[in-house]
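Tokens for chain A. Residues wanted.
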């Protein structure tokens, strides 16, 4: 695999994991724009652990664990808000994390932080598969059904005895953990961190991958991240016009398929599903 293909593959893997960090709260109807902040926590924690001699796998798990704890600490007060207020609160959290990292000299500050250990694409792919398997399993459990029910009708779900707030906190916390893993993978593949990288645009893209791929199945974010990571690369030959083409593709998709690319109906209409039936 060429160097260019390797970098695209690494970026794609990171984007897929980040898409699932956005998917978990979205599956409960909550829009989280703090994904970049959780990615930054995971990235810097993993980099620090690696710099202190911890094994690469332990460092990545530590990064995911740190962002999970941060997600739990943030979700309990933040999820008291609803709608746009929740979105603004998570965005504010991400900006606070970036500002802290930018001003702490021990973490590199504005100069950035060099990461010790390097991670190749193969173990990154293995980590992505684990995340995908975890999301697929969660979606098949009662917890997954509760998330879908809350997204469709939160008050109605509460009537049937589901502890809505507890499920929402768990979904945002798990998503924060996935974001930390994505940040750790980024840190150890590119071996350099800048606080400026973890901005609102990073969170927005992660949310777009999940929304445009579709929230009805756990494989929607996978499809969304693959397509909307690779399409700009395929349009690279058009120079600056590729951003126009990419924007047109998104607008057309939202007009023609507002529920996302992958829906339950589409899956049931696949030829091999009909033959099995």
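Reply:
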């Amino acid at each position: 695999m060429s160097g260019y293909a390797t970098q695209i593959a690494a970026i794609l893997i990171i984007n897929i994991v980040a898409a699932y960090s956005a998917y978990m709260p979205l599956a409960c109807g909550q829009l989280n724009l703090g994904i970049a902040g959780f990615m930054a926590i995971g990235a810097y924690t993993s980099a620090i652990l690696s710099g202190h001699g911890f094994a690469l796998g332990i460092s990545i798990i530590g990064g995911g664990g740190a962002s999970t704890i941060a997600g739990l600490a943030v979700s309990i007060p933040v999820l008291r808000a609803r709608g746009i207020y929740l979105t603004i609160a998570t965005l504010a959290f991400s900006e606070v994390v970036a500002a802290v990292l930018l001003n702490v000299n021990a973490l590199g500050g504005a100069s950035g932080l060099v990461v010790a250990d390097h991670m190749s694409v193969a173990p990154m792919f293995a980590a992505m598969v684990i995340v995908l398997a975890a999301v697929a399993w969660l979606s098949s459990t009662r917890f997954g059904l509760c998330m879908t029910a809350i997204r469709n009708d939160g008050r109605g779900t509460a009537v049937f005895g589901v502890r809505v707030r507890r499920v929402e906190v768990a979904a945002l916390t798990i998503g924060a953990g996935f974001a930390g893993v994505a940040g750790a993978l980024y840190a150890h593949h590119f071996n350099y961190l800048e606080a400026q990288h973890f901005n609102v645009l990073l969170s927005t893209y992660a949310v777009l991958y999940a929304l445009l791929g579709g929230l009805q199945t756990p494989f929607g974010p996978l499809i969304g991240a693959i397509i909307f990571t690779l399409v700009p690369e395929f349009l690279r030959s058009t120079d600056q016009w590729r951003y126009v083409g990419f924007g047109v593709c998104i607008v057309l998709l939202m007009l023609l398929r507002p529920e996302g690319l992958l829906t339950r109906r589409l899956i049931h209409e696949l030829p091999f599903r009909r033959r099995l039936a």
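The beta strands are 113-114, 192-193. The first strand starts at residue 113 and ends at 114.
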